Predict the structure of Acetyl-coenzyme A carboxylase carboxyl transferase subunit beta.
Amino acid sequence: MLRDLFTNVKKQQAIMPNAKSKSDVPEGIMTKCPECKHVEPTKELGKLLKVCPKCDFHFKMTAQERIDSLMDEGTFVSMDDHLVTENPLEFPAYAAKVKKDAEKTGLNEAVLTGTGKIDGNGVAIAVMDPHFRMGSMGSVVGEKITRAVEKATELGVPMLIFSASGGARMQEGVLSLMQMAKTSVALNRHSEKGLLYISIMTYPTTGGVSASFASVGDINLAEPKALIGFAGRRVIEQTVREKLPEDFQTAEFLLAHGQLDAVVHRVDLQDMLSRIIRLHTKGEAAQ
């Protein structure tokens, strides 16, 4: 149904394309696509899951927007909202920045976790939010993801993780890096129980997140043109002393080189996840 709506809007744009944007577009009312410069009413863009109807550019989503677009209405129950970040290394201004992002996003940290249903199938889910400290992974993010995985194992349901992160959080030093191992161990225990883990990589999935839980799914999916990689392009080029392909570290590049199972348009994602869950759980996840 959503795919039909999206297709109809694109057809309308082809017949009557919007005029080029002006520099004085009212903030918040209209949204300009950074890819094709098409201007769309923000409210209408939200109905299209924040995908440009003209060029298919995928805007970043908040964690709550992602949950609302995927989960059956009224089924999502968040977990561990009481966990809050401290400043163990006494990094200057860190606590104030975390507090500011919490007020801006309404989240306690850069990931929203919980349980719910997708098309009637029970799942546990963790959705990273790039609007909170660029989705970076500190101690609380790692702890929340780990607890969500452990809940999925306890309930015997699939685990879904949406990655959107700049990597490990520098203000927490080695405590942040420890989360790479902690989350991976929890996922390994989940796998030992014969349970499904689906990793969905969005823009961006980089650094320690890409090198840990984001890349070890039983099925690894990504959104179109998502940036996925560990180190940055310039660092790699300077190290190998070679010019990298233009599409290097994009979802499409990784798919072509066997590191992804599929690149899935956002409007097709719910249906894709539903089918995968049904196929791999034999209906056991419908609880």
Remarks:
- Residues 60-281 form a domain with the 2-enoyl-CoA Hydratase; Chain A, domain 1 fold (CATH 3.90.226.10).
- The mean pLDDT is 91.
